[in-house]
Amino acid sequence: MVPRTYHADGMVLFCDPMDRPLLAAVLEVQRGRDLAKQRTWKLYVAQLEAELDVDTALVIFCPGPATARWYRRLLPSDGPSGLLLQPLIFTPGDVPLVVDVERARANPALVVLSALCHGGSPEVDTAFPALLEALRSVGPKKEILYYDVVLAGLPGAARARREAFMTTTADYEYRSELFRNIAARRDGDAVLTVLDTRGVPVPEAVREKILACTEQAQLKLWLRRAVTAATAADVVNE
């Protein structure tokens, strides 16, 4: 028999100050039901424990609560196998929305995870100040990495509202090269997304004017106006 190769979504190794392994974790994202996972997940755990000689936890993130309930029912009755899986299964509802600034400074990674889990909810906007402080607290090198994670993970509407917050309320300079490039290309889209999210109708002529504009200063001005404007015309009128 030729062994197959399996790849987990992610693996993390926790070490002491001397770089000696203390604990490992297999990280999986599960969006649907898959009976085969109760066997392949054992391979991930067993491989790490055998290779690193360290206890290994299995952590499963299920975006949908129904999927999480299904796996919780499935895995405790694991059958006659000698390797029982006891994963830590969590959903966005199990992650608190972090809005406290002091808590954000103390645990930046939790704030980033919280924002990503609640990105589809309008309430995520209340976490933007805490997220800003979390990024500032980790130092320039990590800040760029965290910023790119947030940028990639937030849905389009939430990302546009965050762009508006960073350029208006926070007056924040984009430090991530990826974020700067996307912002330069898509400021026009951001203006339209903010208006659409707020329920402000955009006539076709105004939409074309916004998308045709290539002046970054003008687009940033329109983006600031889009946050509070009553009509689309109020955004682009001189």
List the defining traits of the structure above.
four-stranded mixed sheet; alpha/beta; 3 domains; 53% helix; 238 residues
The stretches of 5 or more residues where confidence is low (pLDDT under 50) are: 174-179
- The amount of beta strand, in percent, is 5-15%
Average pLDDT, rounded to a whole number, is: 84
Q: Strands across the major sheet, in which order?
A: 1-2-3-4
| Cα end-to-end separation | 73 Å
Shape: elongated
Oligomer: single chain
Please write the string of helix (H) and strand (E) elements: EEHEHEHHHHHHHHH
Q: What count of domains describes the coordinates?
A: 3
Helix content: 40-55%
What is the helix tally? 11
SS-based structural class? alpha/beta
Radius of gyration: 22 Å
Biggest sheet layout: 4 strands, mixed
Number of strands: 4
Walk me through what this model shows.
The structure is a single chain. By secondary structure, this protein is of the alpha/beta class. The protein has three domains: 10-94, no CATH class; 96-154; 156-238, no CATH class. 53% of the residues lie in helices and 10% in strands. It has helices spanning 37-52, 65-74, 101-106, 108-117, 128-137, 140-153, 156-169, 177-197, 204-212, 216-226, 232-236, and strands at 10-15, 21-29, 56-61, 88-90. The chain has a four-stranded mixed sheet with strand order 1-2-3-4, covered by helices on one side. Strand 2 (21-29), helix 1 (37-52) and strand 3 (56-61) form a beta-alpha-beta unit. Helix 4 (108-117) packs parallel to helix 6 (140-153) and helix 8 (177-197) crosses helix 10. The relative contact order is 0.07.
